[in-house]
C-alpha cells in the first residue's frame, strides 16, 4: 500500500506559478530535466546545430505518445517522458536554448517553452497555441528563435492553404461546440495563407543537401487538403547519410531514421517536399 501511495505521489501533476499562467508537469519530468542538464552542461558552448543533435539523441527511445498537450483550460504542459513529433522538436529547441543560457533552471526552461509554443508567449485560450507548423515557424522567426532557411537552401515557392481545424472543429475538443474559438482559428488561417512560403521538392533534396545543416528542423510538406506540414524532425548525418531524428509513429519511439532523408520523403505518398528551419543561439 505504501508503494502504491508513493507511486501515486510521484505521478501527481504539479502546478507552479509562471507569471499569471500555470505549468503542468510531473516530478518525473523534473528528473529528466535535471539529468539532461547534468549530462549536457559540459557541451553548452558547442555550436547550436551540434547541441541540437546531441539533445535530440538524448531522447532516443522515448515513447511516442500523441495529444499530450490537451488540457482544459489551456495551460503550459511540460512532458519530457513521452512525445509526438512536434513536442520532441519543441523540447529539443527549448532545452538547447536553456542549456545555452546563464541560468539553465527548470523555470527558465518553462519560460522558454511557453515563448516558443504560444503566440506572443501568452496563454489565454486554445487559439493562442501555434497549431499550424507554418504559423509556428513564422511566429518563432519573429521572436528570433528560429530562421526559415528554405529559400536560401534551394527552395521554390509553396502555396499554403490551411483550413483543416476550422472545417473539422469536431476533431478538436476545445473547438467542438465553441463557434467563437473556431472563428478565431478561421481568421488566423486566412493570415497564415496570405504569407509567402518556400519548400524543397522531394526530388531536389539531395541536390541541395549542402544547404541543410545538422540540427536544422526538417518539416515535411503534405498534400492533404487543409494542412501544411504532416511531420517534423531534427536533421542529422550518420556518416555521409543525410537523415533525421524524430518521434516515429510506426516505431512508437524516438529514433534516428534509417532511410536517407530524400528516400524517406519519396516513400510517403502525401509528402511533396520539405521546409528547413534553423534554430538560433540563445542570448
| Ends distance | 49 Å
Q: Which residues form runs of ≥5 with pLDDT under 50?
A: 1-13, 15-20
Give the full name of the CATH homologous superfamily. Putative xylanase like domain
Number of domains: 1
Keywords: Signal
InterPro entries: AmiA-like, Papain-like_cys_pep_sf
Signal peptide: 1-19
Organism: Parabacteroides goldsteinii dnLKV18
Describe what you observe in this structure.
The strands form two sheets. Strands 4, 5, 6, 7, 8, 9, 10 and 11 form an eight-stranded antiparallel beta sheet that branches. A three-stranded mixed beta sheet has the order 1-2-3. Helix 3 crosses helix 4 and helix 4 (85-100) crosses helix 5. It starts with a helix and ends with a strand. The chain is globular. Helices cover 35% and strands 20% of the residues. It has a single domain (22-277), classed as Putative xylanase like domain (Putative xylanase fold, Orthogonal Bundle), CATH 1.10.3670. The chain has nine helices and eleven strands. By secondary structure, the protein is an alpha+beta fold. The relative contact order is 0.15. The protein has helices at residues 2-11, 27-40, 48-58, 85-100, 106-117, 133-142, 164-167, 179-193, 261-267; strands at 14-18, 21-25, 76-77, 146-148, 156-157, 198-201, 217-222, 229-238, 241-248, 253-256, 271-279.
